[in-house]
User: Fold this.
Amino acid sequence: MFAAAWLIARKDLAIEFRTRSAFFSAIVLSLLAIVVFFFTWDPTAVTPIDIAPGVLWVTFSFSGLLGLHRSFGVEAQERAMDALLVAPVAREAIFLGKALANLVFVLGVQAVALPAVALFYNLPLGAGFVALAGVMLLAAIGLTCVGTLFAGITANTRMAELLLPVLALPFFVPIVLPAAQSTAKLLAGRPLAETLAWLRIVLAFDLVFLYACTLAFPFTLED
Assistant:
C-alpha cells in the first residue's frame, strides 16, 4: 500500500512540477497576505513577536487550500479518477499518496513564507529555527490529512473551491491554534519545554486525523 501511495504522490508532484500553477499561486497569495499585514501593522501598538505567529498561520492555512483543491482537480480531466479507482491498489493508498503530495506542497509554501515573514518583521529565528521547523511540519501533517479528505469529498461538487474552505477550516482550528501558540513561544525565545504541552496537542490531532481520514476516505468515493 505504501509503495502504491508513493507512486501516486510522485505522479501528482510530477504534474505540479510541470505546470507549477498551483504552487506559484499559493506563493503569490502568501506573499500578498504578508505584505498586506505588514503595511496595516502599527509597530507602536503591537510588537513583531506578537503579530508574526498569527500572520504565519493565517497565511499557511489559506494558501495551503489552493494545493489541496488541486490534488483532485488534476484527476477531473478525462475522468482520470475513474482510471485510478480501477487500478489494483487500495483506496487508502490513494488517500495517502494524495496527502503526501499535498504535504510536500504545503512544506514548499512554508519554506518560502517563513523567511518572508522573518524578513518583514525582523524575527530572531536563530537557535529556535529547528524547533519552529518541527512545529510547522507537525501542523502541516494534520492540515494535509484533513484537507485531502475534504478535497476528495468536494471534488465532484459544484463550487468546490468555495465548499472546501467551508468544510476544512473548522477542522484546521484544533491544529492551527496550538501550532500558533508554540510558534509564539519559540519566537519569543522561550525554552522548548514550555511548548511541549501544545506540541502534544498537535501530535495527538495528527494521529487522530491521519487514522480517521485514511479510514473514511474510501467511503467518499462511493457514488
The chain has a mean pLDDT of 83. The chain has eight helices and no strands. The first helix runs from residue 2 to 19.
